[in-house]
Amino acid sequence: MQTKETYLQAKTLSFAINPTVKNRGVALITVMLFLIALTGLAVWTARQSIMGEGMARNQLDRAVATQAAEAALRDAERDLTTLSSSIRTNASCARIGREGPPNVAEFSSDCSMGYCIKDSESDYAKSNWSLASSSNKSVAESWWPTGKGGDWNNTFSEKPDRTAKTVDTNHCTFKGGVPLGTYTGVAPITGVAIQPEYLVELFNMTKISPVTKQEEKVYRITARGFGYTQRTQVVLQTIFIPLQE
User: Fold this and answer.
1) Is 138 exposed, middle or buried (0-12, 13-18, 19+ CB in 10 A)?
2) What is the rounded average pLDDT for all residues in the chain?
3) d(Cα 207, Cα 215) in Å, to the nearest integer?
4) How far apart are CA 109 and CA 31, in angstroms?
5) Are 82 and 178 in contact (CB under 8 A)?
6) What is the pTM of this model?
7) Comparing 141 with 210, which gets the higher pLDDT?
8) Cα separation of 100 and 105, whole Å?
């Protein structure tokens, strides 16, 4: 006859032989949770890699645009110091009648052929970014975006095509930014969406000495460079004062 003690021993032995009786399905749940965690980690790692690649691409694009803008600044300086009115080798246009540094007559309020004019330093005090627009250019500066009344002229088909294999002399009466090499013949930059451009503003800067107060003509050059896409733009600016002989 089986006693109570014998029954309990037999039951304990049964659990010891078959321990999965009460743990059935726990292993599957554990594995699923582990797989979900691994999947989440893999997705996060992939997103981080894609983000890092995008940041690196944007940084490279910005560096290309910056170098293009630097090239346009140097090109503008060469344009200002040219000593010939004839078309240079590989250039598209020439400053008519130029036999030395530019004269005031070449500069206009609508930035014809990239030359803009300001009467004096006081004109810049009238600038108001919040009020400026394409329909209210009286308070805008020439180098601002076109949507803020700037004079870059984003209709690039109106300007000399510096990427063409042949020199484009059919667009020399354009207005707005000057494409790289238009007047100097510098070779176009490869790998950029649009050739870099520059604007030159002429204004009178007041010089005060211990004895006299006089005005000196000063050029402010603004250049914008493009990266691999037109959306990437870098704007650089410098003050240029030619050496007086």
Assistant:
1) exposed
2) 81
3) 6
4) 74
5) no
6) 0.74
7) 141
8) 13
Sign of CA dihedral 122, 123, 124, 130: positive
- Token digits for 245? 């002989």
Strands 197-208, 233-240: parallel, antiparallel or unpaired by DSSP?
A: unpaired
Q: Which residue has the tokens 């008519």?
A: 96
CA-wise closest residue to 134 among 151, 155, 117: 151
* pLDDT (mean) for 204-209: 62
Taking only the tens place, the pLDDT of each residue in 216-225 is 778 999 999 9
Strands 178-179 and 233-240, bridge-based pairing = unpaired
**Amino acid 86: pLDDT:** 77
The burial of 66, by beta-carbon neighbours within 10 Å (0-12 exposed, 13-18 middle, 19 or more buried), is given as middle
Phi, psi of 55, deg, nearest 5: -65, -40
